[in-house]
Design a protein that fits this description.
114 residues, two-stranded parallel ribbon, 2 strands, extended, RNaseH_sf, IS3 family transposase
């Protein structure tokens, strides 16, 4: 990784209320996101296909990294997140992926298709 996050994704969580749902779907809000160079991640109501994997990933990140350390600055936290994402993709073996890392499993699948 380059040491910097490549893009920012804003995701609306399940704790959001109806007002925030309306607010997050306005054209004005979308315009602000575009201006800030951010991407919005929000599935349609009752179609939360991205919710499960995202919730699982952030749960693992928090329990395996965030809760175990005190961060003294935003930059320290940002670097820890970047390092964890690199570890998750390249060093964290997962039983559900045939005991491979996500990158190894992706390459394995590409080899099967090729």
């Amino acid at each position: 990784m380059s040491g910097k996050l490549s893009r920012t994704v804003l995701r609306r969580g399940k704790g959001s209320n109806l007002f925030s749902l309306v607010e997050y779907t306005t054209k004005a809000f979308k315009k602000k996101l575009d201006k800030a160079g951010m991407t919005q991640s929000m599935s349609r109501v009752s179609r939360c296909i991205d919710n499960g994997p995202v919730e699982a990933f952030w749960g693992m990140l928090k329990s395996e990294m965030y809760y175990l350390k005190k961060f003294n600055s935003y930059n320290e936290l940002e670097q820890a997140i970047i390092d964890y994402i690199d570890y998750y993709n390249n060093g964290r073996y997962q039983k559900r992926l045939n005991c491979m890392t996500p990158i190894e499993f992706r390459n394995y699948l590409k080899d099967i298709v090729a």
